[in-house]
Structures are given as C-alpha cells and as structure tokens.
C-alpha cells in the first residue's frame, strides 16, 4: 500500500511569497527523503520587517514521523537562507530518529 504525503499546513507572517512557500515545501520533502510514517507536517515561515535584526527570517517545521514529533528551525538574514538551513537540520533530525 502506497501512502500519500500529507498536505503541509503553513503558518506565515510578514512578507512571505507563494514561491517561498513552495521552496519550503520542496525543502521539507527533500529533508524527509523516502521517510514513511509521516502523518502531519506544519511549517512556519516568518519575516520580521526590522532592519536592525541580524536574522529576521525564521523557518520552522514540525513533523509527526512514526508517531514521534520531529522539530527543526532556522533563522537567517533572508527567508530562502532560513529554508535551506531548515532543510539541513530537519534531514539530520529525521535520519537520527530513523537510526534508533
């Protein structure tokens, strides 16, 4: 039986484009690879319009993987950079969970 991927629920704040949401979706599925047992995914993308902040962009993912909650987040100067860092961190956490 082939299970379909669950739809990603997005929470966004600030200036986040549809293109950036799509990039985050691709990054999450790339990080999870061929992981089975993904029952839910929530991604938060946030950009604070404050030029004094060194890392105003935040990307966070919370994934239910085989009944366990896997969470990763990253902050960066730009949202695309935060999404790239999120992908790397989520991949590490998901692979360490599968190794157990």
Could you say which overall geometry the principal axes of the C-alpha atoms support?
elongated
The total strand number stands at 4
The tally of structural domains comes to: 1
Helix count from the secondary structure assignment = 2
Helix content: 25-40%
Organism: Actinomadura soli
Protein name: Sigma 54 modulation/S30EA-like ribosomal protein
InterPro entries: RHF-like (IPR036567)
Write up what this structure looks like.
The protein has helices at residues 18-32, 79-99, and strands at 8-13, 38-47, 57-65, 68-76. By secondary structure, the protein is of the alpha+beta class. The chain has one domain: 2-Layer Sandwich (Double Stranded RNA Binding Domain). Strand 1, helix 1 and strand 2 form a beta-alpha-beta unit. Helix 1 runs parallel beside helix 2. The mean pLDDT is 92.
């Amino acid at each position: 039986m082939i299970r379909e991927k669950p739809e990603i629920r997005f929470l966004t704040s600030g200036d986040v484009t549809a293109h950036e949401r799509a990039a985050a979706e691709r990054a999450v599925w790339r990080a999870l690879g061929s992981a089975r047992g993904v029952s839910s995914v929530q991604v938060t993308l946030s950009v604070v319009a404050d030029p004094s902040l060194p890392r105003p962009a935040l990307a966070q993912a919370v994934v239910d993987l085989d009944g366990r909650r896997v969470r990763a987040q990253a902050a960066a100067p730009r949202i695309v950079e935060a999404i790239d860092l999120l992908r790397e961190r989520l991949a590490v956490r998901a692979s360490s969970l599968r190794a157990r």
